[in-house]
Specification:
Elements (H helix, E strand, L loop, with lengths): L6 H4 L2 H8 L5 H8 L3 H12 L3 H25 L3 H11 L13 H4 L10
Helix pairs in contact: 5-6
Length: 117
């Protein structure tokens, strides 16, 4: 009877790198290659010299950049909702306008106009 395939034989390095771009859990990645989590961890430690979490974070960077690129492209093509969202995310814009500290005096009501309760 033939020996069962080892984790190394079942895990394909390039395929694992691509899979990590989808930010899988350890269980999902192990299930994908039909190996145990401990076998997956050992393979990553030997082949990549890091942990599962470190490899996943490193490979997910390209996915995050691709998503940002797609969002920016969509905004630049005229999607106003995306423009507003990106402005809030990257430019610190908000729906509530707060005057700068040095401008606050301009907006305060004079004491004679305030009602003291």
């Amino acid at each position: 009877m033939a020996r069962p395939a080892t984790a190394r034989a079942r895990i394909h390095k390039n395929e694992l790198e691509k899979l990590m771009g989808f930010y899988p859990s350890e269980q999902e990645a192990a299930d994908w290659f039909e190996v145990s989590i401990s076998s997956l961890r050992r393979y990553i430690k030997v082949q990549f010299k890091c942990s599962f979490e470190q490899l996943r974070a490193k490979k997910f960077v390209r996915t995050k950049i691709a998503i940002k690129r797609a969002q920016i492209d969509k905004a630049l093509k005229g999607d106003n909702s995306m423009l507003i969202w990106l402005g809030k995310q990257y430019l610190g814009q908000s729906d509530n306008v707060e005057p700068a500290e040095d401008e606050k005096e301009q907006y305060e009501r004079p004491a004679s106009m305030r009602s003291d309760d």
